């Protein structure tokens, strides 16, 4: 698949380092960082990014762009590593990304396209939505002024990804992914990674607005293209999962079955874990028990059949009254799961779940 030439991954930003530097300890540490990052080992990536950042200060100087790139790598690694204190990591990532951005501004000025990468990293790593919006707005303005369609579409897509989950999600932010998708659909082949990402994200935007008929063909397009590419991708798995929910909400359970089965074939069943439903209907709290201020729970065993449907639910235990048992059984009958696979075929499997009913006092 093609990638956008202008937005080069930051992990390759030091490809022009001199041969003398590449032969020393820094080179080994940086290479280890690259390998860990590319393999998704976030804890190791963070450790190597920390060391590279420390070594880089002496090698390149604190005000150099090379050192700033190492800071951006570390900021992203801190954001991705969930093993430590989340808030502390995000705060430190924000501080480092801000310092890196300042180095870029000192080198290239405040309107250069070179600032788009560090601005997006800052927007992504900060916990503060206002800071994220400000960073992405600057990046978008620079991208617009550049006159480069690829750059603007890519920046819009990333701005949507970050701002869609904040209080600043508006019709304008929705427009970012709509416009990005339109551009990539016109200028990228159907199996392009960036086009498929934009397609998946636009489908999600439609799904969130309950525009199921608009979301459906987009999710199907993602699935079809990854079939052609012949490998499993998280977006393909996600598209199958969202289509299960979509069809159930549209009252088309028969269409969701093939996607339940597809997920089952892609994702191994773990007998030691409680299975997560692809679609769940929340139980209705019995009004009589609400009026009495009564809380309770019900534990139900059931069979997930070859089509991912719930069969033979039975009450294992409960507390609070029969009303909770009945509400749990009724809700559970509408749930959908990915079936268990054995020897390449879907089979029945046993599972259980506990549903809790609580009255807030």
UniProtKB/TrEMBL annotation:
Membrane topology: Single-pass membrane protein
Keywords, ordered alphabetically: Cell inner membrane, Cell membrane, Membrane, Protein transport, Signal, Transmembrane, Transmembrane helix, Transport
One of the protein's GO biological processes: protein transport
Transmembrane segments: none
Segments forming domain TonB C-terminal: 270-361
Main location: membrane
Protein's recorded name: TonB domain protein
Annotated organism of origin: Shewanella amazonensis (strain ATCC BAA-1098 / SB2B)
């Amino acid at each position: 698949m093609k990638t956008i030439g202008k937005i080069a991954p930051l992990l390759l930003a030091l490809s022009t380092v001199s041969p003398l530097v590449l032969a020393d300890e820094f080179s080994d540490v940086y290479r280890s960082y690259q390998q860990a990052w590319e393999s998704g080992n976030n804890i190791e990536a963070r450790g190597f990014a920390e060391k590279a950042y420390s070594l880089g200060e002496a090698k390149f100087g604190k005000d150099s762009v090379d050192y700033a790139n190492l800071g951006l790598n570390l900021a992203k690694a801190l954001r991705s590593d969930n093993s430590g204190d989340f808030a502390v990591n995000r705060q430190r990532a924000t501080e480092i990304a801000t310092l890196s951005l300042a180095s870029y501004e000192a080198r290239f000025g405040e309107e250069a396209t070179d600032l788009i990468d560090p601005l997006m990293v800052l927007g992504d790593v900060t916990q503060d939505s206002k800071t994220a919006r400000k960073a992405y707005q600057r990046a978008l303005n620079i991208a617009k002024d550049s006159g480069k369609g690829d750059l603007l579409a890519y920046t819009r897509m990333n701005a949507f990804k970050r701002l869609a989950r904040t209080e600043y999600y508006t019709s304008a932010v929705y427009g970012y992914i709509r416009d990005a998708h339109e551009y990539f659909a016109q200028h990228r082949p159907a199996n392009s990674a960036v086009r498929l990402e934009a397609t998946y994200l636009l489908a999600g935007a439609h799904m969130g607005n309950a525009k199921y008929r608009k979301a459906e063909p987009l999710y199907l397009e993602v699935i079809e293209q990854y079939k052609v590419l012949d490998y499993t991708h998280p977006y393909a798995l996600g598209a199958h999962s969202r289509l299960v929910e979509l069809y159930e909400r549209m009252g088309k359970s028969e269409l969701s079955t093939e996607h339940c089965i597809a997920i089952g074939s892609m994702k191994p069943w773990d007998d030691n874990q409680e299975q997560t439903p692809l679609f769940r209907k929340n139980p209705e709290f019995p009004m009589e028990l609400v009026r009495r201020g009564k809380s309770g729970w019900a534990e139900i065993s059931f069979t997930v059949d070859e089509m991912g449907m719930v069969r033979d639910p039975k009450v294992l235990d409960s507390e609070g009254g029969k009303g909770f048992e009945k509400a749990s059984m009724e809700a559970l009958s509408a749930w959908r799961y990915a079936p268990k696979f054995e020897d390449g075929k879907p089979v029945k499997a046993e599972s259980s779940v506990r549903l809790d009913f609580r009255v807030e006092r």
